Each structure stands twice: as C-alpha cells, then as structure tokens.
From TrEMBL:
HAMAP family xrefs: CTU2
InterPro entries in alphabetical order: CTU2 (IPR019407), Rossmann-like_a/b/a_fold (IPR014729)
Family designation: Belongs to the CTU2/NCS2 family.
One Pfam family here: CTU2
Descriptive protein name: Cytoplasmic tRNA 2-thiolation protein 2
Functional summary from the UniProt entry: Plays a central role in 2-thiolation of mcm(5)S(2)U at tRNA wobble positions of tRNA(Lys), tRNA(Glu) and tRNA(Gln). May act by forming a heterodimer with NCS6/CTU1 that ligates sulfur from thiocarboxylated URM1 onto the uridine of tRNAs at wobble position.
Pathway assignment: tRNA modification; 5-methoxycarbonylmethyl-2-thiouridine-tRNA biosynthesis
Entry keyword set: Cytoplasm, tRNA processing
GO terms for MF: nucleotidyltransferase activity; sulfurtransferase activity; tRNA binding
Gene coding for it: LOC118409936
GO biological process per UniProt: protein urmylation; tRNA wobble position uridine thiolation
GO CC terms in record: cytosol
Superkingdom of this protein's organism: Eukaryota
Cellular localisation: Cytoplasm
Length: 423
C-alpha cells in the first residue's frame, strides 16, 4: 500500500481474533481447566466435588432409594451408564459412614445383538467379554441377559425365573460366551425376535418396541433376583431428546413416567434416573478426569441416515441447537419436568393402564385403537380365508403411542406369538 493510502483500507485486512479471556473457578477462584457452560467454569477438584454432590443430592432429595435396599444398575457400556457405575462404586467407598452410599448394588447387561444386522456371534462374544471386564471391576454381582429372553418367559405380575440369566464375574466370562453362541445358533427365540422386528415398517416403531422390551426385561431381572429399584443412566441430554420424540409419537401423556426421576408404573419395581440432571458434556468431562472406561456397542440407529427415525432426527435437531445455544437441553428438560401424571381415578375399569407399556391410558383412545385394528384386520382378511386377526385378541387396551407402534407392524400373527408383550 502506498504511503498516501487511506486509513480505511486497513479495515479490509483480516484481523486477529481477540485472545480468549482466562476464566477462574467459580468456587475457589483458581485457574479453571474446564467450562461446563458459559457461566460455570471449574478447576479439576471443584468439578469432581460439584459432580458428586449433584449426584448424591439428587438421590437424597428424592428419598426413593432407602439404605440397605437392593438396587440393580442397568449397564449398557456407554458413557452415562459407565459414569453411573463409577459414582455408585465411589459412593460406597466413602471414608465416613455418614456420607457412604448404603445400598446393595448389582449390575445387569442386556445383549441386543440378535436384532442388529451384521452383528455376528464373534462380535457378540467380544462385546460380552468387554462388558464383563468393565462391570466386573466394580466388584458387584453382574447379570447377563439376552433380549430374546423376552419371547421365552411368560409375563405375569408375579416373580418369574429369567431364562439364561446368571450372575457372572470375570472368572465366569467363558460361560457367558458359550451362552451367547448357543443362543445365536440353535435357539429359536432369537429368530422369533428377529422376525418380530423385521415386521416393522419403520425404524421409529423398532426403536419404540425396543425401549418397551428393554424396560420389561429389566423389571423381570429385578424381580427374579430380589431388586426393588433399577437405576438407568439416562442423562438430561437423552431425556430432552425423548421429550421431543415422545410428543411427536403421541406419547405425551406418559412423559412424566418416561423422563421423571422415578418411574413406578410397574408397581413393585421402580426405575430411577439419577443421571437426569447431567448433560452429556458434563458426563464426558467426568469420565475423562476420572479415567472411567466405557465401550461402544452398535445399536439399531448406528450408521443410519439422520432422517431414518423420529428419535434419530430429534437427536440431531437437539444436538445442533445445543452447539450454538447451550441452554437448549436444560430448557427442554426443565419444561418437560414440570409435567405430572394425570388423574386416573375416574377412568373406566380395565382401561387405566396400557397393556403394552403400562403407562396411564390416554382419554378417549378406545375408538382410535379400534380404527387401527380395523384397518389391519381388513388387510389380514384379504390375504387369508380364515379368521380375522384382531387387536382385541392381542391386548385389551393400548395407549395412543403403542397403538401407532402396533399398527406399524404388517402381520399381527408375529405379535400374537409374543403375546407376553401385552400383559
């Protein structure tokens, strides 16, 4: 540029971005090493104290879990469930008796490999071995159960034996691996479950059905082994996605149970969500600092398109907003947390709870259910000369969300083979 150039020409040159202002810990004033949110910067020690206190205070305020109670920890190998397992183990090793977490924990892992395409026997064995190693290091009793057990165990409200479910430790991993191999080769339950999912026309229905089956199986394992509470690792980020997805799928009436701290729809076994106050970023930071080991296992939505299902699309939408608007997850989650279960005292007898998901039945959904069943019955009547397969033979009553899921299956005979899903 010439000496006589205008000063305004300098404004077109690229400018160096201003240096980020160093933040101090909001508690002790030391140099912060991580920032949870814009206004929440912590040093390493203060973040661990904040994270642990948040977990313990959530359990203490709810008073759902009592001292000496048997609690089953649902472990999937993911970051959230791994953090839950580490927090419980750490809480039981506290120095003072007053602060110690006084429960009798156990760990359960549900193998869902039978419904995942391309997940062969060798991969299932390696996943079981990895999960056994991580869960076994906690020193708690570990229970391995296959998702296909849902088709072999008759569902009642009484205590039931859970087939192919045994307490394991790192020393008994070989027995579990032989169990996986036998189930995947010569057991028909895996084939029945696979056909059941193949009947679904959309991935949304598959995800919805998998969530229901997983909950039912957790409750069965808990009842069989004497656990009264089941802790799951649902984080605030996951629950925010579920709030939006459930509303889109017509499950708004069940939101307080699906996303609340305690889910008591099953009566004697209560599902507890102690990780619901943490976002995924906080959990990731905790696992990094404490070197918590986790494992990645493929799911139904692994390597699928963004618009493959309502849940997957909602997750991408929430995650995209969270990047530029850090309050997205907390806003959605806190709004959904204000909802409560509607009064069911004045509803007709026999229509108080959904026969499939056990949630309170929606008002006026009997007509919609009959309409969905009628359309499916006409399709079945056109293909066969025999008796028409009706939804009333499968389940006496369904909520709006479950009726849409059932209507998404082309053949009701596959569901009738698994009639324990509706009891």
């Amino acid at each position: 540029m010439e000496c006589g150039g205008q000063l305004d020409d300098m404004e077109t040159l690229p400018q160096r971005p201003p240096a980020a202002k160093k933040k101090n810990c909001v508690r002790c004033g030391k140099d912060a090493v991580l920032v949870v949110q814009t206004s929440a910067a912590f040093c390493r020690e203060c973040f661990l104290n904040y994270f642990t206190h948040k977990f313990r205070s959530g359990l203490g305020k709810s008073r759902v879990v009592q001292p000496g109670e048997k609690v089953l920890l649902a472990f999937s190998g993911g970051p959230s469930s791994a953090a839950l397992l580490h927090l419980v183990k750490r809480g039981m090793e506290e120095g003072t008796q007053k602060k110690r977490l006084r429960i009798e924990p156990g760990v359960v892992f549900i193998d869902e490999g039978s419904i995942i395409q391309g997940f062969d026997v060798d991969q299932r064995q390696r996943s079981v071995q990895t999960i056994s190693k991580i869960a076994g290091e906690s020193g708690f009793p570990v229970h391995h159960v296959m998702l296909e057990d849902i088709t072999t165990v008759q569902a009642t409200e009484a205590d039931l034996p859970v087939s192919n479910c045994a307490g394991t430790s790192p020393a008994t991993t070989e027995d579990v691996e032989r169990q996986v191999k036998s189930l995947s080769t010569d057991d028909t339950s895996a084939d029945r479950l696979k056909r059941l999912f193949e009947e679904a026309k959309s991935l949304t229905a598959k995800e919805d059905l998998l969530q229901i089956l997983r909950s039912k199986l957790l409750v069965r394992v808990a009842r069989t082994h004497g656990y009264t509470k089941v802790m799951v690792g649902d984080s605030g980020t996951r629950l925010s996605v579920r709030i939006m997805a459930d509303i889109a799928q017509g499950r708004g009436a069940a939101l307080p149970l699906n996303t609340g701290f305690a889910d008591d729809r099953h009566g004697d076994v209560v599902i507890v969500r102690p990780m619901r106050d943490f976002i995924a970023k906080e959990i990731s930071m905790y696992n990094t600092i404490c070197q918590v080991e986790s494992a990645f296992l493929p799911t139904l939505t692994t390597r699928v398109a963004e618009k493959a299902s309502i849940g997957h699309l909602t997750e991408a939408f929430i995650s995209g907003l969270q990047v530029n608007f850090p309050s997205t997850v907390s806003t959605v989650f806190r709004t959904g947390a204000k909802l409560c279960v509607s009064d069911t005292e004045n509803r007709p007898e026999g229509y108080k709870r959904c026969a499939m998901c056990k949630a309170p039945l929606d008002t006026g959904q009997q007509g919609l259910l009959q309409s969905s069943v009628y359309k499916t019955s006409l399709a079945a009547d056109d293909e066969s000369d025999g008796g028409v397969v009706t939804g009333q033979d499968l389940c006496p009553s369904l909520c709006h969300g479950c009726s849409l899921t059932v209507a998404d299956f082309g053949d009701f005979s596959t569901l009738s083979d698994s009639d324990q899903l509706f009891t």
